[in-house]
Design goal:
2 copies of one chain form a homodimer. By secondary structure, chain A is α+β, with helices and mostly antiparallel strands. Chain A is 15% helix and 30% strand. The first copy, chain A, contains 8 helices and 27 strands. In chain A, the strands form 7 sheets. In chain A, strands 6, 7, 8, 13, 14, 16, 17 and 22 form an 8-stranded mixed beta sheet that branches. In chain A, a hairpin with a 2-residue loop joins strand 20 and strand 21 (263-269). The first copy, chain A, is globular and about 65 Å long. The two termini of chain A are 39 Å apart. In chain A, 55% of the residues are buried. Chains A and B meet through strand 7, strand 10 and helix 5 of A and strand 7, strand 10 and helix 5 of B.
Chain lengths: 362, 362
């Protein structure tokens, strides 16, 4: 089992399908919301409709089509894309590299799930080639910035949740209502040009260092298929403010790996994330901001405490000082032609992979 | 003359109109793209279609409806919302307040138009009430953050441009092609909760301090109506990198004012903005990020060099130390019930106003 996505066969319109092993179940005969080029209408229909669809699939409905015969599309129209920074280990690693003389965690980090808005219009489906971005960067010791292809192109391994049922403008969504609004999860590769990001990001945050592309899996795994993966959140100290205190086990134990040119370079697990998805949703809406069908909220890079469990090359390689070893050479950052695959599994449920190959700059 | 918008009369479907004085010209009979609830299809049709529509309006087509009889809708579906930081005076003022012991401008500011992504899903049309956001803030000298309604609710006076014709993923848009892609401009009030923003914004930029609401005018003024307002850009030192060198006069001389509870508290002009709109577009896409129909890119707060020409209360009041005087009292920041109106005029062309009243927190 994997999840829902959008596919098409040559000469046919895109439609909704459910991945089952090496087949896609064509659901387009099950209703108008499935004979559509995105999951948005189905996701907006809410939890009862989601469960009903899963029950019909379980009962054998849907026409099997070999996966090898179809083209996979981006599964939903992305409304807003928010990226959090919810791994304590990642935030600590980044703080040590970027602010070596200061406390690695900024004072706000343990009080709220830090996050920002990314570019929804460049969220692409797994398999889409990613062109190396060009941009401004200021090399160490240089007086002025230079322009050119990024020399420090990186990945970020993330898990994202997708909103189905919208909320109302001006009304916060309590974290307890997480599963009334959220349809499912995707794997996310938040491609990052570290040199562009390093020069641009003060004081308003990342912009062009991230906005060239964000890849998501072709399959959205519904929350209800992940019930057995739900585990207690790691302890939080200090205790967060009341709006961030949410009952229930909502951390997801998903085994994750990063493959670079065929070699696994990182293995980690999302169960260790400091901030949970319901906390992220509660925080993002506590000011009255509404969510819409197709909102994508990603975890931020998932890094564990051990060597080899970091979710980005900049962490895995100690800011490039200790390249990872591959069969075809060593990598501090990504080279043209490199292919990255992110994978995730929770028990019997395999999430859709996120695959992307780097093309040379224009 | 003002521009294109979307309106409806009781019992009728929303449709495209053109504001002409105290009337709206109902354009729905002119084609399918006008019998639509947003400008998106018309904006996507490109410059020839835009000119053709203006010529038909000039020739007397469209049925006049009194403005007083219609409800105005958000004129377009916002794809991505980017907010820049393009006023030298504003960036300097903010730097002095937030980093009093350092150079007010960060090293990157004169090399690139600093910007970030805002929340597209909470962009609302002029007239929409704005509920005071609640959130975390850490008062000066406090050990821990507190939660509650924002105590430092502010405005930001901005001018934004709206993309009509999309670009291709992976391909930068040269600044010379600005008017092949950009349909027109709106006034923008980028409401800002300074206390929430101040606590949350490091290291990834503003999030909840801005995302509760952004108001835009109900009318999008096409670029072609603003030809006479185009003036040379202020000098830039150092000379920007080649991709940001763009010929042609693209600064817009728009006289702007901020009215608070009936009193004008600021008068300024967008002609002084350091970074021009074509430079903003070239920068936002130089990494290969595509633009989509409905992308909104705003200038950032427009402040002039004189006292009383600042585009935010935090600047007008010296971080609250010198409140502005109104007929009904003094204001450091916005109180519940306050109404703000932004206005803009370029010669004979009046931009649509942006009006918003503050409602008490939930």
């Amino acid at each position: 089992m994997t999840g829902f996505g959008v596919f098409c066969r040559p000469g046919e319109e895109p439609r909704v399908g459910f991945r089952a092993g090496d087949d896609v179940l064509d659901l387009s005969a099950l209703g108008d919301e499935f004979a559509a080029p995105s999951l948005n209408a189905f996701m907006a229909a809410g939890p009862i409709a989601w469960e009903h669809a899963l029950a019909r699939i379980e009962a054998g409905e849907g026409r099997a089509v070999p996966l090898a015969e179809v083209e996979l599309k981006r599964p939903f129209e992305v409304a807003d894309y928010v990226d959090f920074y919810s791994s304590l280990e990642h935030a600590t690693n980044m703080g040590r590299m970027f602010r070596p003389d200061a406390e690695p965690l900024l004072p706000n980090w343990r009080h709220l799930p830090v996050g920002y808005h990314g570019r929804a219009g460049t969220v692409v489906v797994s398999g889409t080639p990613v062109r190396r971005p060009r941009g401004q960067a200021r090399p160490p010791d240089a007086e002025a910035p230079v322009f050119g292809p990024s020399k420090r192109l990186d990945i970020e391994l993330e898990l994202g949740f997708v909103v189905g049922v919208p909320s109302r403008f001006g009304e916060p969504v309590h974290g307890e209502r997480f599963d009334e609004h959220v349809f499912g999860v995707v794997l996310v590769n938040d491609w990052s040009a570290r040199d562009i990001q390093g020069w641009e990001y003060q004081p308003l945050g990342p912009f062009l260092g991230k906005s060239f592309a964000t890849s998501i899996s072709a399959w959205v795994t519904p929350l209800s298929l992940l019930r057995e993966a739900r585990v207690p959140r790691p302890p939080q100290d200090p205790e967060p403010l009341p709006y961030l205190r949410i009952d229930g086990d909502w951390s997801l134990a998903v085994e994750l790996e990063v493959e670079l040119n065929g070699a696994v370079v990182s293995r980690t697990n999302s169960r260790g994330l400091y901030w949970s998805m319901p906390q992220q949703l509660a925080h993002a809406t506590v000011n009255g901001a509404c969510v819409r069908t197709g909102d994508l909220m990603a975890s931020g890079t998932i890094s564990g405490p051990e060597r080899g469990s970091e979710g980005s090359l900049i962490e895995l390689t100690g800011n490039g000082a200790e390249p990872v070893e591959l069969r075809d050479g060593r990598r501090a950052f990504l080279e043209d032609g490199d292919e990255v695959v992110l994978r995730g599994r929770a028990g019997d449920v395999e999430l859709g992979e996120v695959r992307g190959r780097i093309e040379a700059a224009a």
